Amino acid sequence: MVDQLEAFCLQILRKMKLGKLAVLYETHREGMRYLVFGVLSTLVNIVTAALTYYVVFASLPEQGKVNLSTIIAILAAWIFAYVTNKLYVFDSRKDTIKELLQEILSFVGCRIVTAIIEVIFMNIFVTHLQFNYMFMKIISNAIVIILNFIFSKLWIFKK
């Protein structure tokens, strides 16, 4: 389904006389798909963070809201990102249980590193410096997307 949607969108670009953009996308398909699914993963992260921060944990002290909301949002985004990266971005086809477990452990290990960076970032800027939670969530996600792409490309889904 992703391939058909992608082909449809590329056709639209060509019909809109944006063929060069379509060629650019096709030339850098892996990076472009990572960008598309990265944006969707970020939306999962931000929507989950907003719901948990402003609704579920609204009555908690600030640091509790920040930490719990950030961690739950990260976990939701991880699940979405692993599935989409594996199937649609890096086209990872692990044949054995051992290979699959190694891939999952690499994914989780690298994501733990970026999760720690995000939690520290959010605590510094929201809890201590009192910046707006959602604004800093968006900024932290931009940083995390870049780091996650590097980790995914170099270690997790390497061919």
Description of the molecule:
- There is one protein chain.
- With 159 residues, the protein is mainly alpha-helical.
- It has one domain (2-156).
- Helices cover 85% and strands 0% of the residues.
- It has helices at 2-15, 19-27, 29-56, 62-89, 97-128, 133-156.
- Helix 3 (29-56) packs antiparallel against helix 6, helix 4 runs antiparallel to helix 5 and helix 5 (97-128) runs antiparallel to helix 6 (133-156).
- The chain is globular and about 50 Å long.
- It starts with a helix and ends with a helix.
Count of DSSP-assigned helices = 6
Percent in helix: over 70%
User: Can you summarize the main beta sheet?
Assistant: none
Give the number of domains. Answer: 1
Q: Uncertain regions: pLDDT < 50 for 5+ in a row? A: none
| Number of DSSP strand runs | 0
- Rg over alpha carbons: 18 Å
Shape estimate:
globular
* β-strand amount: under 5%
SSE pattern, N- to C-terminal: HHHHHH
Structural class by secondary-structure content = mainly alpha
In quaternary terms, these chains amount to single chain
Mean pLDDT: 90
Report the span from N to C terminus: 23 Å
